[in-house]
Design brief:
single chain, alpha/beta, 5-stranded mixed β-sheet, 15 strands, Nucleotide-diphossugar_trans, Glyco_trans_2-like, Polypeptide N-acetylgalactosaminyltransferase 14-like isoform X4, polypeptide N-acetylgalactosaminyltransferase activity, disulfide bond
């Protein structure tokens, strides 16, 4: 009887001990890192609000959203919690407190964000990241000139400001940012975004569980005219067609098929507005390919490289981020940029399936592109899967065209191949020395 009573007393004692241990670990974590993270306070919030309204007398720049309404919102606001009620990450985070939390860095690229939009972007990213803290942050001002904000953020500890006098593009700007931060987990952030409550913990926890996962939040919508914040009724992932143009695809599996509404799910393509990944994995993949002329092709090329070279791309429903839904340009120049960029992706990653791209975009054959030999060598070095594997295992919904050619390849006579002269109408064909890399011969 004495032994049973002793055991009964030990159970609550052990429970109390475990709770104290968890509390102690949490306390140590916060105390040790209190002076080692990016932190804002109420004073900074008020100062940013004053800076936003001080710019109202300035000439309003032409951007794809309503700046007046954005300024009226202010530097910080309380967003509606659009997550599922089952999303409670604090308890999950406590499980990992006994282990070392990886250092987290933010790389924020700024190209067309007005002062009020940028202020909400940065403040929401830091404030709503709790209970996690950010080790350091870099702002890359890519051809943006706002000396007031630039000087202000330069004086905040652990915030670095990089200023590009001339626009270098998102890919190059992000690589500049990665070189300037020291975190083990890098969170890439576009400035036209606003982070919702506890958005960071679910992403970091997933990377801890799966180090080669590239994780994205669910994107909510911020109206570009009213700046109201909306959540989408369904979950979506991003896909693409044979023209290599991206589109949203409804993906209701976590809500309908799976009994757990917060299940992480895969996406064949990512939108790079906000995503997180391990720094070492990003460097191992070769970082960004900087020759693309538009963001969508940056995202497509990196997505294919991640999937085909050993990684995963996943959407975490318990992380929510709003994106300002501005429209991109549809000019003739931007269409040619798209064709050239898409052709580079097709030639490097689509293997024999590139014929489907040329079937729907025949004019791309005549578009000149820069040398892609280094991209092909990197693909070989990383020992990546072929595109057939991707279609079979990751994106079987991308079906080959029903009306495919009876044959494909080149027409040759000995060492000479039929070669089309680019830019000629009507087309002129000549026999020239066969070259495997020459697209006008295939």
């Amino acid at each position: 009887m004495k032994r049973k009573k002793c055991c009964a007393c030990m159970v609550p004692t052990l429970m109390v001990f475990c709770l104290l241990f968890v509390w102690r670990e949490r306390w140590i974590y916060y105390v040790l890192s209190a002076d080692q993270h990016v932190s804002f306070n109420e004073k900074i919030n008020k100062e940013l609000n004053l800076m936003i309204h001080s710019g109202q007398s300035e000439k309003i720049p032409k951007v794809g959203y309503n700046i007046v309404n954005s300024r009226n919102v202010g530097a910080m606001r309380t967003l509606p919690n659009t997550r599922h009620e089952s999303c409670t990450t604090s308890s999950n985070l406590a499980v990992h407190l006994h282990a070392r939390i990886p250092k987290i860095s933010f790389v924020v690229t700024v190209d067309q964000a007005e002062r009020s939009v940028l202020a909400r972007n940065i403040l929401s990213a830091i404030y709503n990241a709790e209970p996690l803290m950010v080790f350091d942050m870099v702002l890359v001002l890519d051809g943006v000139f706002d000396t007031i904000l630039e000087n202000y953020f330069m004086n905040i500890p652990r915030v670095t400001v990089i200023k590009n006098e001339h626009t270098k593009g998102r890919a190059m700007s992000r690589m500049q940012g990665v070189a300037a931060v020291r975190g083990e987990i890098i969170v890439f952030i576009d400035s036209l975004t606003e982070m919702n409550v506890d958005w960071l913990s679910p992403l970091v926890l997933r990377i801890i569980e799966s180090p080669k996962s590239v994780v994205l939040p669910v994107y909510d919508v911020i109206d570009h005219m009213t700046f109201k914040y909306y959540s989408l009724a369904e979950l979506y992932r991003l896909g693409f067609d044979w023209s290599l143009k991206s589109h949203l695809e409804q993906f209701s599996s976590p809500y309908v098929i799976d009994s757990n509404p917060v299940t992480v799910f895969r996406t064949p393509l990512m939108s790079g507005n906000v995503f997180a990944m391990r720094r070492d994995f990003f460097l191992w993949l070769g970082q960004y390919e900087t020759s693309f002329l538009e963001h969508s092709m940056d995202d497509l090329e990196l997505s294919l490289r991640i999937w085909l070279c050993g990684g995963l791309i996943e959407i975490v429903p318990c992380s929510r981020v709003g994106v300002v839904n501005i429209r991109s340009s549809d000019s003739h120049a931007s269409f040619n940029n798209y064709l050239r960029s898409a052709k580079r992706v097709a030639e490097v990653w689509l293997d024999e399936y590139k014929r489907f791209f040329y079937a729907v975009r025949p004019s791309a054959r005549m578009q000149p592109i820069a040398d892609i030999s280094s991209m092909r060598k990197a693909k070989e070095k990383l020992k990546c899967w072929n595109f057939k594997w991707y279609l079979t295992n990751i994106y079987p919904q991308l079906q080959p065209l029903v009306t495919d050619e009876l044959a494909f390849g080149n027409i040759r006579q000995g060492e000479y191949c039929l070669d089309l002269d680019p830019g000629q109408l009507p087309l002129i064909a000549k026999l020239r020395q066969c070259e495997n890399e020459k697209n006008s011969q295939s």
